[in-house]
Amino acid sequence: MVSRRGVVLPGLLLVASSALAGCGSDDDADSAVADPTTPASTSSEVDSSTPSAGDAEIPEGTPACDDVWSEGAKLPRMYAGCEAGGVYVERDVITCSSGQRIVRFDDAFYAVLGGPVQAAPPSFSENEDYQEFLVGCRA
User: Closest by alpha carbon to 37, among 136, 123, 109?
Assistant: First the structure.
């Protein structure tokens, strides 16, 4: 006859070791995804003077980032990215619980697809309006 303790303890140890096996270092690529205030690589972080071999080609008809990302401008519903200094900058999207998508740019601007562009000075992590918008998005 197996005691209850003999069954439960090995099961708990298995669960605990499985949970720990999923832990990674702070250098994991997924760590940036966990913090919604961390911006994706954008034009301010890209050195356009020395594009790497992995840089994406700029699709024909891509708008300039300065034309798209100005406060009050309307973000196109089909926005996929923009061009800054000869570099293609893909959109940085956060999906809300409602299914709506927030697009962010350069730790300075955000908008809902098809909606007005909002500035977030001095940064996403320090802008109260952006933080409230994000909380509402995820509610």
Answer: 123
Nearest by Cα to 61 from 80, 85, 40:
80
Domain boundaries, the chain: 38-46+57-139
| Per-residue pLDDT tens over the stretch 43-100 | 333 333 333 333 568 999 999 999 999 999 999 999 999 999 999 999 999 999 999 9
For the record, the structure tokens of 120 come out as 């977030």
**Using the 8-state DSSP alphabet, how is residue 64 labeled?**
B
Question: In the beta sheet, which residues pair with residue 116?
Answer: 74
pTM as predicted: 0.60
CA distance 34 to 100: 19
**DSSP per residue over 67-135, as a string?**
HHSSTTPBPPTT--EEEETTEEEE-EEEE-TTS-EEEEETTTEEEETTSB-EE-SS-GGG-HHHHHHHH
Residue 41 and residue 45: Cα distance in Å, rounded? 6
Total count of residues recorded for the chain: 139
Cβ atoms of 65 and 89 within 8 Å: the answer is yes
